[in-house]
Amino acid sequence: MLRVLAKLHICKLTRESHGYHHCCCSLLCCFRTVSSLTDPVERIPFEKLETIDYHSIKFHQLRQILQECTSAGDLLSGMSVHTHLVKLNINGSIMIWNKLLSLYLKFGDIHYAHQLFDTMPQRDVVTFNTIISASVRDDYDAFELLHLFSKMKKEDVKPNHITFSALIGACNGLIALRLREVFHAHTVHCGLSSNAFVGSSLVDGYAKQMRLEDAIRAFGEIIELDLVSWNILIDGCVRNNCKEHAVRMFLQMLKGNVRFDGFTLTSIIKTCSKPGDLKHGMQLHGCAIKLDLAHETPIHNSLITMYSKCEKGMESPLKIFGSISEPNIISWTAMISGFVQNEQSEEAHGFYKEMLRSGVRENDFSLSSILPVYGNLAKLDQGKQIHARVIKSWFGLDLSVNNALIDMYSKCGSLEDAHLVFMKMEKHDVVSCTTMIMSYGQHGKGKEALEILSEMESEGLVPDGVTFLGCLYACSHGGLVEEGVRVFKTMTEVHKLNPKQEHFACVVDMLGRAGRLNEAESFIDEMGIESDVLVWEALLGACRLHGEMELGEKSAQKIMELRPEGHGPYILLANIYAERGSWEDKEVLREKLVSHGLKKQLGCSWVPLERMPC
Length: 614
Hints:
It is a single chain. It contains 35 helices and no strands. It has 614 residues and is mainly α. Helix 18 (297-310) runs parallel beside helix 20, helix 20 (329-341) packs parallel to helix 22 and helix 32 packs parallel to helix 34. The radius of gyration is 34 Å and the shape is elongated.
């Protein structure tokens, strides 16, 4: 036995001079010598051997050799040590078993790790934290993690901040969301809700659930706030579209003398998303330069997105992109999205080709960003090429990519392909169903759109305002007036959604297309939306369709008052006069258009001149 201890003691010293594997082999040989004493023929009484183990064997040396196996990536030697530890029945140090557990998990062998965990003679909080954290990384079901937590409680092992941080972070599934509240209650009971690790996990979890008020309350419970806590809260505010609150938290952090980092700036720059935010965004850009953070790629990426949304054109984003030493996929995707937002689809396509030539592979975000380009350009062939790349790259299961495919095929006029993509999806979300409803609406298939709405509700998906807008649009173009009225009532009375001007305009357009012009005018009066220019434009369009001059004149006059810079009412009303043979009235209206300095915008059509290979 003493020789075994000597081998253990010199293991670390001999690793560099004689080789790690030689040392392990010598050690295991000595283990075999000791284990032979325990054969059934002549063996020392087991109780005596246990006494020797507990009082003589230096457990830290056993832990050391297991640590050496873990560091050297030697799973086989580690398993051999495990075998001999079992044969010697060395149960005295729980830290040895925890080292074994870490060894198996380092090699990603979660199955053997769970087997070891189940057979361990003792378990402490480190044991449970190790297996719980590994299970979270391996995407174990939240209820399986709850089983581990229940086992922990039954064995009277007290959880700590690491335990709760891992468990709370794992509650991301729809069913598991309620578990976060359960774990939150346990943290309060254990007095750990004020811990920075636990509190930050709660803030992040509630923010991802779009429960910002609960996230702020959890943040307020943290006693010692650090930069990570502030960053998580600010990012959560941005994710919940509470940009003003994110800015307030950022200023409050600065008042508390907490120095921000690149992650903080990346999050707060996201609050600048419209032209009026440009000045604020430029100030944050200046802060990044002043604090020598502007060289960080994530900040470059957020600045590209900010300037794309706040500034007309892509001159600034192009300069920022050119200054990135090694642009990543996020950088390329931000540029492509910027071109699309600025209606520069050709440039977006060119940038995408340049990205592929540089060796950068697409991800789900880049594919979702480039697909709208081919819908906008109505280039079905190129869209199908991207679809082929989606299938080859295994992103065909991604929801956002499939939603973009449905939209692209619909805009290219291929409703059958859009429907095929929709039907092959393993699961749908609100965006999937809404996109399909809008696709049917654009092609005048109102009944099919309403069927999607019914299927959506049967799947447990809650339609939003955009979904109902698509249904109203589909009913309008499909001539389903009564069905459209029922959809509007369902939206307002059942789902308690407040209609926006687009919803009102769709209802007016639906009634107007059906020739029920007086009902459309009455609807405007009843809803109290006389100051909404969109509803009058919809009514004027219906009057143009049915040649209703009197109501058309009233609608045009309303539009001219509400939007004097628009040329649309003059053109539509002039066409009504022409159809009625009122040429003098038409000429007067044309002169009035010119006198106001207005000019009819010319229409355009897309004509493919050459192929655009991807």
